[in-house]
Amino acid sequence: MTALKKYNYEIMDDGNALSMVTLVREGISYYGFNSIIKHTPFSSDEWSSYLHMSERTLQRYKKEKKKFDAMQSERIIQITQLYNYGSEVFGNEEKFDKWLSTENVALGNTVPKSLLDSSFGISMLKDELGRIEYGILA
């Protein structure tokens, strides 16, 4: 089962864009975020990097049970969607986790998960997963 399906916000799939906009505007709670991070291979340090905040700030969100702002909530959703898509393409989370952590020639010898800190990087990974899904390997 993918991270998103374990998370209560089932509205985060691509077919519910308006619901996602509402969720982004309201902000994802730390409780909801914690539900996601338990089912992804990313460390707290990596998540703080992806969300452009210090690890200390991330811990403060946890302690104060804060909601993430719109930009951070959107990034959480984008990464969650990408993670679910990648797990689907590779058939399971373990294979996708390995792909995320291995240098990729098609991505300029970059480790894929290092691109998760920008929407352009996430888009590149989504495109690459689409090529893999359809057997178009570089």
What does this structure look like?
- The protein is an all-alpha fold.
- The chain has one domain (3-133).
- It has eight helices and no strands.
- It has helices spanning 3-6, 17-26, 30-37, 44-50, 55-64, 70-90, 93-100, 119-133.
- α2 packs across α6 (70-90) and α6 packs parallel to α8.
- The longest helix has 21 residues, at 70-90.
- It is globular, with a radius of gyration of 15 Å.
- Residues 21-79 form the Antitoxin Xre-like helix-turn-helix domain.
Assign an overall shape: globular
Helical region count?
Answer: 8
How much helicity do the residues have? 55-70%
Q: Mean pLDDT across all residues, rounded?
A: 90
**Count of distinct strands:** 0
Radius of gyration, rounded?
15 Å
Low-confidence stretches: 1-11
User: In what range is the share of β-strand residues?
Assistant: under 5%
Largest sheet: none
Classification by helices and strands: mainly alpha
Q: How many discrete structural domains?
A: 1
**Euclidean distance between termini CA atoms:** 29 Å
Order of helices and strands: HHHHHHHH
Instruction: Kindly report the oligomeric state of this protein.
Output: single chain
